[in-house]
Hints:
Shape: elongated
Strand order of the largest sheet: 5-13-10-6-9-8-7
Oligomer: single chain
Amino acid sequence: xxxxxxxxxxxxxxxxxxxxxxxxxxxxxxxxxxxxxxxxxxxxxxxxxxxxxxxxxxxxxxxxxxxxxxxxxxxxxxxxxxxxxxxxxxxxxxxxxxxxxxxxxxxxxxxxxxxxxxxxxxxxxxxxxxxxxxxxxxxxxxxxxxxxxxxxxxxxxxxxxxxxxxxxxxxxxxxxxxxxxxxxxxxxxxxxxxxxxxxxxxxxxxxxxxxxxxxxxxxxxxxxxxxxxxxxxxxxxxxxxxxxxxxxxxxxxxxxxxxxxxxxxxxxxxxxxxxxxxxxxxxxxxxxxxxxxxxxxxxxxxxxxxxxxxxxxxxxxxxxxxxxxxxxxxxxxxxxxxxxxxxxxxxxxxxxxxxxxxxxxxxxxxxxxxxxxxxxxxxxxxxxxxxxxxxxxxxxxxxxxxxxxxxxxxxxxxxxx
Length: 417
């Protein structure tokens, strides 16, 4: 039986509507299943954080879950492809029934932004959430951008001891006797003056407290406890580094440039408040020869710059044999040198100024001792902040640093002559 054009349109319309409804139901069901898999995976991750599930079991579950998600996502993509092949508009209906936004969105789904005309593009934009912004999804990168945190490199230079006691005591010779010449049958007098003492290094405590809401711990894309521990380690390094250079030994380490014996033997700079070619050489010869074999210069980065500019100024002045105190490193990993000795940059050393101790030189392994009692310890405070729905993380570390052999370290006093 032949059908009229109107009957054909009616049948086609009914078929299209049923096909769309069927495909939409399949898509909705698959998407709900995917969302449930994601929710279950998040709960499994929370169980790992709470210690209910092991990391190995979670990884196995995660791998299985991802495979299921991939299969479902492929089904959704295939169904959407089928839907796109169906006519967008129902036969027999006027185009004017669809809004301008709907038509623009349907055309964008089929052919992308290049197919949109000026008027259509105006109504489909991400700056307005309702006209396209909800459809533009940002990519979330699970990585935190961090600026560089600078801290003193004294740990690389000093002698480090670890202890399980409250303090470390190091015997030290504090006096010597003198030998003398004597005749073959001459009487020998008793030699006096040999004395000993103790250097006591007692670790001090550093601490930091960070509070996090339970929701943040549960929903964060990061392992916040690991992140907080990393931040605390970094800030403890900053704090102890400052103490190793300028600490006053009251509840904190003794600094290299605050030790009374080191200050008393300080060498005056050639000119007040500025670096001079004579300064590193005078400092070198102020140190006993036995310490110079492993000696290094310790200074702020800006002081390094001042010495490099000193050399540049000499060359610019036409002095062909100028002041070549600074020698840049030509081998990766090897430090540059000043007057033939390695240079170590230290952010906590003071800048060059009148009265400042801006340049240190010596065998720091012989002269400075660091004692570690407790490495970083993290404690969870669950009950204390429960009424605020927060969990506290308190970190602590016990460490001390002390000048144990002052004659192995020399500093430059830029007060001038």
